Amino acid sequence: MRAAVVGGSGFTGGELCRLVDGHPDFELVQATSREYENKTVGHAHPNLRHLDLRFSDPADLESVDVLFAATPHGVSMQHIDAFQDAADTVVDLSADFRLPEASAYDEYYDGHDRPELLADAEYALPELNRDNLPGATLIAAGGCNATASILGLLPLFEADILSGDERVVIDVKVGSSEGGASGGKAASHAERSGVVRPYAPTGHRHEAEISEYLGIDVSFTVHAVDMIRGASATCHVFPDSPVSKGDLWGAYRGSYEDEPFVRLASGGGGVYRYPEPKAVAGSNFAEVGFELDAANKRLVVFSAIDNMMKGSAGQAVHAANIAYGLDETAGLEHTGLHPVGAP
Ligand SMILES: NC(=O)c1ccc[n+]([C@@H]2O[C@H](COP(=O)([O-])OP(=O)(O)OC[C@H]3O[C@@H](n4cnc5c(N)ncnc54)[C@H](OP(=O)(O)O)[C@@H]3O)[C@@H](O)[C@H]2O)c1
Questions:
Q1: What CATH number does domain 2-142+309-323 carry, 3.40.850.10, 3.10.100.10, 1.20.190.20, 3.40.50.720?
Q2: Binding of NADP(+): at which residues (predicted)?
Q3: Looking at residue 342, what is its pLDDT?
């Protein structure tokens, strides 16, 4: 199947080029960039120097089966007609089609240009809603921080440990690649190196996504930390009724034992006893774990992903695999590296 990556020179676009190149059923026929037009893909992504492909103008889209849009917020909603003319299936990595209600875009973003299309889009976080994805033609890959948070909390809802009325506080630590290749002053090495910086203490846009898909209001804070890749969510949960460790193991095993990309890491031996972005860097795995603080009627849940894999490009390919009825894990089977420096 022919595949194109619009926004191919960016961070998630580079990951998509890497994944599509290694995918047994997809062929990368186009990657776009205005800045790097006519330059090789390897010019922007040195890990892809072997690719015999040059960036092209996003105004000249090839006819493909699947188009991955790895562009900033607002671009897909503006160009969706051209994307859909060029491709049978559009998988968008931005937030443009993630929320079903236009009112949420008024509240959390700057409104929406094409609200009539929101009902046609399928949100993609396969562990949550894979049944919606077969045959989908407009797919909105779940956001990175929302994915980490939802994967951590989902089993508590599926096992009825949470109903949606409880207090949930989420703190996510994120790496610098979340900000994209264009970065900005705060992303420069001198400013970013060594930080643990409260970056979105309140009002982060992913709050809307978590609330929408888990049906719960959350208190959500994001810190920028000294990683390149990774999102690590710590969720403090205060259930109404007592919960045992056995209940928690039952809930998390029940939700995830058949999931190809979720690993439980919950207080075992060794150095990496809980979810750790370093342990999943470069892979499509999410790690999820928990601890019980019975004295304080608190659960603490941990979740770690690579924001550019499970949090974006990997999630997009996973969704496309399901949409086309392919093996879900096709092109995504590789594990990360260990040991490895700060990812
Ligand atoms: N980074 C993450 O961890 C992450 C995780 C989840 C979701 N996302 C979402 O994924 C999207 C891409 O993120 P990113 O981090 O990869 O961004 P990025 O590194 O800044 O890359 C953006 C890409 O979009 C292209 N682009 C920008 N404006 C365009 C336009 N008007 N028309 C066509 N192409 C345009 C850029 O190339 P040219 O300007 O050269 O054309 C570039 O290739 C964003 O919506 C982001 O919110 C990112």
A1: 3.40.50.720
A2: 9-12, 307
A3: 67
pLDDT the model gives residue 296: 87
**156-to-133, 210, 235, 290 alpha-carbon distances in Å:** 23, 14, 12, 11
Residue among 312, 315, 317, 318 whose CB has most ligand 1 atoms within 8 A, to mutate? 312
CA dihedral 239, 245, 251, 257 (to 10 degrees): 150
CB atoms within 10 A of CB 330: 18
**From the CB of 180, is ligand 1 less than 6 Å away?**
yes
Other beta carbons within 10 angstroms of residue 68's beta carbon come to 37
pLDDT at 74 over 80: yes
Distance CA 336, CA 131 (A): 28
Average pLDDT over residues 180-195: 89
